[in-house]
Amino acid sequence: MTPAARLQAAIEILDEVIASARDDGPPADTIVTRYFKHRRYAGSKDRRAVRELVFRAIRRTAERPESGRAAIVGLATSDPQLRDLFGQPRGPEPLQGDEPGSEAAFVPAWLASELSPLVGADEWPALLERAPLDLRVNVAKTTRDELLKEFADAAPTPISPWGIRLPADSRIDDHPAFASGLIEVQDEGSQLIALACGATGSERIIDLCAGAGGKSIALAAAAPDATILATDSNRARLSRLRPRAERAGAEIEARLLNPPRELDDLSDWRGTADLVLVDAPCSGSGTWRRNPEGRWRLMPERLERLTAAQQHLLDMAAELVRPGGRLIYAVCSLLSREGAGQIDRFLERHSSWISEPTAIAAGRSDGAGRLLTPAHDHTDGFFVARLRRPC
User: Fold this and answer.
1) What's the confidence (pLDDT) of residue 38?
2) Nearest Cα residue to 57 out of 292, 283, 289
3) CATH number for the domain including 177?
4) Is beta strand 133-137 parallel, antiparallel or unpaired with respect to 183-185?
5) Are residues 200 and 322 in the same domain?
6) Dihedral (C-alpha) 342, 343, 345, 349: value to the nearest 10 degrees?
7) Peptide bond into 260 cis (omega under 30)
8) CATH no. for residue 343?
9) Are 45 and 23 members of one domain?
């Protein structure tokens, strides 16, 4: 492919990404892979170059662009070499006068006021920086020191005692340590959420929004004698837990919930759980460095639905915790409404519950919880709070 043809390919892919963001379709990575699956003539250098263009345009643009062309025109405003490719054979149509492109920004304008006060404009660039690849060591099977020897360019994560950090774009899916269940891909922030749970002994634990089970498996490694129930309302996500748990050697029960009758599905656990982890669905604003097109997917009405779902999950979790037990609430979000504000509202509804310090040496105090951010902690962005039901 010529450079001009690569630029045209990026425009076509971005058109699909924009439509997918609008319609809640597949992520940009999937769209890029699918695009080249049907274009076998493109070599590996072509694929890398086009992918880089696509993600440069996505990271540059906070608001969802009108078109892929508008996103690339915006990118070309500060790159004369890209501007020169317009109008070349197999490339985009020539630029039309001062044809407008999408504006550069880190955060959508409507969302800036929703960010935690801790996330000032000086921290915004870090929200879009490329993230490293973090691994969690399966401490039920091995030690971090042993596994550090197995990876080139590896370093221990600064905060989590379970973590190993590799450069961005590292591949580990064919590594023997992955195949044998000694490691899992998990950002250090997610590892810290599992650590904040303080799972011990033979506790009864519910991971209420388990998804594919990453935190359930981390809890099982930390407390091998615990009884762990992983639940979710999404069958496809939950189905990915079993092979991951088997690879890790973790005994975890998976249970599909049926909204709005989740408490009926959990009647045998009601009021008996020592720990309930609510890693709730959220805006994903803390993971923009991994999923920058997430900014294009988030709209005010979706945020309203998410915060309502978080409230529902917290109230449901409160019914499952035994007297004296604890509830850990976490969201990969930097928005006050989903983090500190959500816990403030919970404590208004459940005034006898007690807010406790989280057992992690990271982040900054944010209301009744702690906030981790890419700029301050070099992790994905997370809010986490620990609550205890009175005896």
Assistant:
1) 84
2) 292
3) 3.30.70.1170
4) antiparallel
5) yes
6) 130
7) yes
8) 3.40.50.150
9) yes
Residues 6+ apart with CB under 8 A from 83: 76, 77, 95
One domain, residues 339 and 215: yes
For 29, left (φ over 0), alpha (ψ -120 to 50), or beta? alpha
Whether 308 and 349 map to the same domain: the answer is: yes
Interstrand relation of 227-232 and 253-256 (parallel, antiparallel or unpaired): parallel
How distant, in Å, are the alpha carbons of 161, 239, 265, 311 from that of 232? 28, 10, 11, 16
Can you say how many angstroms the Cα of residue 347 is from the centroid of all Cα atoms in its chain? 26
Size of the chain in residues: 391
Assess whether 332 carries a catalytic annotation. yes
Lookup result for tokens 């906030």: 371
Q: How many domains does the chain have?
A: 3
Residue type, 40: R
**Residues in contact with 222: Cβ distance below 8 Å, sequence separation at least 6, in sequence order:** 139, 194, 195, 197, 199
Q: What is the pLDDT of residues 201-220, one digit of tens each?
A: 999 999 999 999 999 999 99
Q: What is the pLDDT of residue 40?
A: 80
Q: Are 200 and 170 in the same domain?
A: no
* Residue finishing a domain among 169, 185, 201: 185
Of the candidates 197, 209, 282, 332, the residue annotated as catalytic is 332
Same domain, 176 and 202: no
Based on the domain organization, do 236 and 279 belong to the same domain? yes
Closest CA to 360 of 133, 157, 209: 157
The residue assigned the tokens 């301050």 is 376
Give pLDDT tens digits for 138-159: 999 999 999 999 998 999 999 9
The structure tokens listed for 26 are: 């597949």
